[in-house]
Structure formats: C-alpha cells, structure tokens
Amino acid sequence: MRVSKLKSILSVIATLTLSAIHMPAVAQDLCTPSEVTDPQALHINGSKPFVYKSIGGADLRLHVFSPPGHKVADKTPAAVFFYGGGFVFGDVRRYQTQATHLALLGMVTVLVDYRVRCRNKSTIMDSVADGKSAMRWVRGHATQLGIDPSRIAVVGSSAGGQMAAATALIPGFNDPKDPDIDAHPNALILYNPALDMVAIADRLEPLVGKESASRARELSPWEYLAKGKLPPTIIFQGAADTATTPDKALQFCKRAKSLKFQCDVVIYPGAPHGFTEPWLGLDDPKLGIKYEEWAWDAIRRSDGFFRKLGWLPAARR
After folding, report:
1. pLDDT single digits (tens) 155-183
2. CATH number of the domain at 3-309, please?
3. What are the C-alpha distances in Å from 304 to residues 161, 234, 257, 307, 311?
C-alpha cells in the first residue's frame, strides 16, 4: 500500500473516532450500544468530582484537579476543559493528561461532562447550555475551589472548541435555572474548533438532528466575533484537518486581530483532526503520524500562552 494512502486511512480513522461531524454516512451506527453510550466516569484519579447540574434524569459532573499543596486562599488561575466528539459522544477523561500537567504547574483544572446525543438524546443547544452552566458553577464556587474568578480559561477541542468559543461570544442558550453569574472566560485555548457551524451544517443534520442543524448560524462563533468580546485566544490547528479546516481558524484570527483582539493560530503540517490527543497511539514517524509529538508541543505552547498572560511562573532555565 502506498504511504500516502495508508496515511490518509489512518487520518480518517482518527477523525471518525474524534469527531462525528466528519463522517455523516455512519450516523445510523454511531449510537449503537458501545463505549459511546456508556455512562461517564463518576471519579477520575487525582481529582475531586462535583455535580454541577442535574437535568433530564442525568447528573452532570465536573472533575477538579488542584495543584500540590493548594489552599483555597491561594486564588490561582483555572482552566476548564470541554472534550470533543461532534456533540454526539465523547469522554470526559480525554484531556486528563493536559489537566494533570497544568495542575502540577500550579493551576486548578476542571474536566467537564456535558450532554451529548448518544448518551442523553440532546441537541447542540443543550451542549452549549451545559458549557455555560459549568462555567457559572466554576466561577460561582471560586472561593471554595481556591480559584481567581477573573482568571478562568476555557479549553476545548472540536465540538468542545465550539462550546468554549460559545461561552465567550454567543449570546443566549442559557439554562433558565442557572444563577446570574458571568459565564464568559478570561482566555481561550481551542484545538481544531468548530468556529463556522454553517460550513458544516449539511453534515450535522443526520448526526445531531434537524433542529440543531437549522440553527447553525446562531451556533457559529464566527457570526458573533464583531459583536462580542473575545478574550486572549490561541488556536491549534492541523493542516490536514478536513473536519474543521485550517482556513477557518486563520480567517477567524485574522478577523479577531482586525477587531483589536489577541488571537494566534499554530498550524501543524500533516496533522489531522484531533491531533492534540496523545491517547490515540497511532504514532508512526515513517508515515508522518506523530500524535504524541504534536500533543506535547501544543501543551508546551499552551504553557507559554499562560505564562504570557502571567498565569504561570516563568519557565526554569
């Protein structure tokens, strides 16, 4: 088999695993009983779980990792993670590596579960509402968690990237039971985010339903960039991503900069969708598949992003 063909096949496998929006032809099989419909973890090693919301018969949890020796009086910055999965499935543990890493450096980190179609028969609007609810819970419990409420970042991948950007830019889609607390983040880290939902609307309907697809424009962070207030943002994007293409990330940041917002894009040549997730285990230097290298480089650059904001101490030399 030719190298380029095998590389393409591996990329498609990875993309299908990570983002349902890429392969609409398999929609009918996505929610068959399997790990995509299994309940989420109730506890993750090294973290403390909290139920931040109960809705539709489901308790939605977030898992908080604290730095060693952390005290509630410390008022440290925090990073809240939303996993990807096309709003259809996904695992709350997906960014455990990054969450643990940042906690060891001195930040409080939070892995958030939210409603997805295969587990909860939910819509994209439900997922976005849950993301905002989680942000309000974290900020509302800042004193209890030892967090500085003015330094909370959101990190999201693919569908989780759309949710992260939505907390910053998209109005509405709020749970009426939420307290009156600001859900806007103070920084954004986006991995191959879905920024232009209109561009993928034709692939959304068979996966997430007609109602969600019909509201693609309302759910597009791109549509609100000129109207909202984007916090400091960095986007990590694979050049070979065909699910959320690099041109969208570049256009988004170019427009953000024209509006005087801080926004940077890091492009990884040869990297497909979901390249920042080291658990994939598909590394093959001969084929240019190097998920762990890409993921750890993104982690290193994320550290630099937080250091530039003054949220982490300067790196030791």
Report:
1. 999 999 999 999 999 999 999 999 999 99
2. 3.40.50.1820
3. 20, 11, 20, 5, 10
